[in-house]
Every structure is written in C-alpha cells, then in structure tokens.
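User:
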Amino acid sequence: MEQPIQEAIKQRRSIREFTEQPVERDLLERIITAGIWAPSGLNNQPWRFVLIRDQDIRTQLAQLTHYAHIVKAASALIAVYLDQEKMYDRVKDHQAAGACIQNMLLAAHELGLGAVWLGQILANKEKVNEVLRLDSHYELAALLALGYPQHRNQQSQRLPLETFILYEFGGTNS
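Assistant: Predicted structure:
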C-alpha cells in the first residue's frame, strides 16, 4: 500500500536558502487552505494570516529576528496569528496553530516550494504587529519563510522509535 502522506512527512525539510523566483499568490492560497483544514478545539478555527511579498516589509521584519538572512532571502512570508477573540483555551489553540503550521509546511513541500518555520521572531511579536499594522488581539504564532529552494540537500535523522515510547499498556507484539 502506498503511503504518500508518510513519505511527505519524512521527506519534508526546513528550507532556508531560496532562489529569487517569486511565489505565486495562488500557491500561497493553497498553502493557507491546507492550514485551515487543521483540527481546532470546538472547530473555532482561531488562526489568521498575513501574506507578505513586499520587499520593504520583509526588510523591516528581518530586523526583528536573528534569522534576518532567511527572511530577506524568502520571496514570501506568511505570518500565522491567533485571533484571541476566537480562542477559548490557550493551550489547545496553540496546539491547533501548530497543526495548522505543519499542514502548511507539508503543502509547501507538495507544491515544490521550500519553507521554514521561524519562531525566534516571537521575542519581538509586538514589533511585528506594529510593522504589519495589527492590534494586540492578534497574537503571532509563527512566521513561515517560503520560496523556491536553491537545493534540497538537507538531511535529517531521527532517534530510534524505542527512544520515544515510555510505556505500553496492553496490546500485543504483532
């Protein structure tokens, strides 16, 4: 049996080096559509997005993170926000945002784009809101940098499965 989702999960890598080719808006819409199909508690769908392809805005945002070179190199950014007026449980809504972001990263991979989830910029989330002209009821969850990858030679490994399973209660060995 083919397992395309399992393969995509294992093949996707964080891409930090991009070509100068612009990312088309319809691809950004497809990526966001994948994101909004993530599960959320009570189906509250608390996520909101800002699409950023403008060079001046990208330059301003680059000044707010240690990863300025990635932000400047990406031809598109998606700022992922939580609308605090839609949230009902802080932990669950942040978990939902994580699922949304993972869906978006997988969609970018499927579409031939490279993407990386940038979190360090959260240290300056109030300043990001100022640059993007958003008020404080929108809480920055992540910034995704996207573009066409310069290469796909990133490698990754995972520890053996046994490392992660603490206990097993019941079941069989088959």
